TrEMBL record:
Protein name from the UniProt record: Diacylglycerol O-acyltransferase
EC number: 2.3.1.20
Organism: Actinokineospora bangkokensis
Ranges for domain O-acyltransferase WSD1-like N-terminal: 5-271
InterPro entries for this protein: Acyl_transf_WS/DGAT, O-acyltransferase_WSD1-like, O-acyltransferase_WSD1_C, O-acyltransferase_WSD1_N
Length: 469
């Protein structure tokens, strides 16, 4: 029997439209080795690793009459060159040109008739660098059966891509309409309530698939510190269009650790304080009214352990990402008072026995941040958009160099999706001594997202004033 999508996975397909594509992404920059690392080497590496993530050669097939949720089936026409693509900038390509391209690539929905991922090798960057831009649908990565491809393509040591294994991939036969209907009836007999829910989907009531999830998650609100009241008004609450802008900011992990050592809290607290400071400057630059009580509410997905799990690393990945609502004190002019406010808001989670420390996340095999950012986006998408202004995901990464084949990764920026009424999303990843912010903005509502990115770096400098005194 084919593997059926979960209710949550199916909801991401039902809710997708041209304005809000439901995929996450990443931008990894690599130093091209003297031996070269180009498109043929990348295709060879991807082919070599596909066996580790079988879902990446499967596509979604609907059930006739919507009698059950869609199923995953092997794509008998799988074409590696469709999914791994090549692009180039006019040499020497700048950061601005690269990130403008990223915004355009990420704005395009994935083709739901094919496996739900794409990868672009971007050549022509200054200094002999290349970039890898990835797009992965939120229905694909659940952290248990399927992880993000970025977690399996990178290694701790350089190595030349090998030829694909001797045994070729043999796709299983796709079930016909009759088989899909028989399986759907069997599932309905086991779970009769699903017949009504799937009928709603057939009537284009796509929200029905997610309302169950949203209701469950919203029930957590009283337990995570903020009542279910509407998000504060402001320019971040905007109906988004199809076009996107992408901008980045950089910091040194050692600097943020120095701030934490002097003022207390966690590195995550410091990062949220940096974002709060930048948002304050950005609001003032727009002429917005900012008072001492002004806040911006962020939904910050945080990793937790399963209460019934044994606390092992695999147990930390299995959809165990809990949404935490944090009121960022953008009205507070003193950066260190802002830090104390943020630390106080997050203390309940940091003290919880279910919270997962950064050191524990770093033990996850491979480069876990892409998978954890995907889980964070899934958590945010199933949470009511009425009660937060933006999504912030922050995932610690390994502090050693990683390689795709023989190419060393120098930077990695998360690319988070936008929901219908949020004009900004921020992903943060630390890697090899650096901290990398990726800002996704609606092209109309956040036309100055590059200004906010510069303000993030200025906010870091503001916090470092006492450290360097």
């Amino acid at each position: 029997m084919p593997d059926r999508l979960s209710a949550l996975d199916a909801s991401f397909l039902y809710l997708e439209d041209p304005v809000t594509p439901m995929h996450v992404g990443g931008v990894a920059v690599f130093r091209r080795p003297r031996s070269g690392f180009g498109y043929p080497e990348l295709v060879s590496l991807v082919e070599q690793r596909l066996a580790l993530v079988p879902r990446y050669r499967q596509r979604v097939v609907g059930v006739p009459g919507h009698l059950a949720r869609p199923v995953w089936v092997d794509d008998r026409g799988f074409d590696i060159n469709y999914h791994v693509r090549r692009s180039a900038l006019p040499r020497p390509g700048s950061d601005e040109q690269l990130f403008d391209l990223v915004g355009r690539l990420l704005a395009r929905p994935l083709d739901q008739s094919r496996p739900l991922w794409e990868m672009y090798l971007v050549e022509g960057l200054a200094g002999g660098h290349v970039a890898l831009v990835t797009k992965t649908h939120q229905a694909l990565v659940d952290g248990v059966r399927t992880i993000d491809f970025g977690q399996v393509i990178l290694d701790a040591a350089p190595h030349a891509p090998q030829e694909a294994g001797e045994e070729p991939w043999l796709p299983r036969r796709e079930p016909g309409a009759a088989r899909l209907l028989v399986d759907a009836v069997a599932d309905t007999v086991r779970r009769p309530a699903e017949l009504v829910e799937n009928g709603r989907a057939a009537l284009a009531d796509a929200l029905a698939a997610t309302q169950r999830v949203t209701g469950v998650v919203e029930a957590l609100v009283s337990a995570i510190g903020i009542a279910a009241r509407p998000a504060p008004p402001g320019p971040l609450n905007a109906t988004v269009g199809r076009a996107r802008l992408f901008a980045v900011a950089r910091a040194r992990l050692s600097d943020l650790r120095d701030v934490r050592a002097l003022h207390g809290g966690t590195v995550n607290d410091v990062i949220l304080t940096v974002i709060a400071g930048a948002l304050r400057s950005w609001l003032l630059s727009r002429g917005e009214q900012v008072t001492s009580s002004t806040v911006v509410r962020a939904l910050v997905p945080l990793a937790v352990r399963d209460e019934v799990a044994d606390g092992t690393v695999p147990g930390m990945l299995g959809n165990q990402v809990t949404p935490q609502l944090v009121d960022l004190p953008v009205g507070e002019p003193n950066p260190f008072v802002r830090l104390h406010h943020v630390s106080h808001e997050l203390r309940a989670h940091n003290d919880s026995v279910r919270s997962v420390a950064a050191s524990a996340l770093l033990r996850v095999g491979g480069f876990a941040p892409p998978t954890l950012h995907s889980l964070g986006a899934r958590a945010a998408a199933s949470f009511s958009q009425r009660i937060y202004n933006l999504v912030i995901t922050n995932v610690p990464g390994p502090q050693i160099p990683l390689y795709a084949g023989t190419a060393r990764m120098t930077e990695m920026f998360p690319v988070m999706p936008l929901n219908k009424h949020q004009a900004l999303a921020i992903g943060v990843t630390s890697y090899d001594g650096g901290v990398y912010f990726g800002l996704t903005g609606d092209r109309t509502a956040m036309s100055d997202v590059d200004l906010l990115a510069r303000m993030l770096e200025e906010s870091v400098e503001e916090l470092l004033t006492t450290v360097r005194a």
